Amino acid sequence: MEHIYPIFDKMLTRADKEALLGQRGIMIWMTGLSGSGKSTLAIALERELQRRGILCRILDGDNIRSGINNNLGFSPADRRENIRRIAEVARLFVDTGIVTIAAFISPSEELRRMAAGIVGEADFFEIYVNTPLSVCEQRDVKGLYAKARRGEISEFTGISAPFEAPAAPAMTVDTSAMPLADSVNEILNSILPRINKQN
């Protein structure tokens, strides 16, 4: 580390980037069980933000694990490193003024607080996608829950590994109880005042 010479003081600032884009960067962190609807919500939200001229980027669990985190498994240590790397990447996007949407199980409060600490608490908007386990299992197109219940997958969140509900999320959504469009509108009503530069 002694040979690293940061150039942060010479780079354009976050304020410069946000002024160029006409928006504020924010981290929208969706947490919930596999099959809860995080990715579906993220995709629908991205489309609505795009329609409003807001630049955004989705970071999704499957995509990240097939790329930047393809060397990580699902042990507690690997789960922590997975979230740490995601948060570091997300911080770069947010600091560039981009609305960043993360869709990750992130099963513990400790992991989510670590992510918030890296990104910055003021920029971290946590959404708990609180869809019942039974519904998540019904939606399971990959058959992962069935495999976990047969003992074929170890450390599977919700079955053989715990999921800690967020202590104080900014918002809670149950995708089994509310139509997708209504869920997206609720999220938009909460985040748009934080994104719009003129406010």
TrEMBL record:
Pfam families named among the record's database cross-references:
APS_kinase
The reactions it catalyses are: adenosine 5'-phosphosulfate + ATP = 3'-phosphoadenylyl sulfate + ADP + H(+)
Any idea which residues are catalytic in this one? 106
Q: Which InterPro entries match?
A: APS (IPR002891), APS_kinase_dom (IPR059117), P-loop_NTPase (IPR027417), Sulf_AdTrans/APS_kinase (IPR050512)
Name all APS kinase domain ranges: 24-174
A GO term for molecular function: adenylylsulfate kinase activity
What's the top EC group for this one?
transferase
CDD domains listed in its UniProt record: APSK
Residues bound to ATP are 32-39
GO biological process terms held by the UniProt record: hydrogen sulfide biosynthetic process; sulfate assimilation via adenylyl sulfate reduction; sulfate assimilation, phosphoadenylyl sulfate reduction by phosphoadenylyl-sulfate reductase (thioredoxin)
User: So what does this one do?
Assistant: Catalyzes the synthesis of activated sulfate.
Q: What is this protein called?
A: Adenylyl-sulfate kinase
What is the protein's species of origin?
Marseilla massiliensis
Gene label: cysC
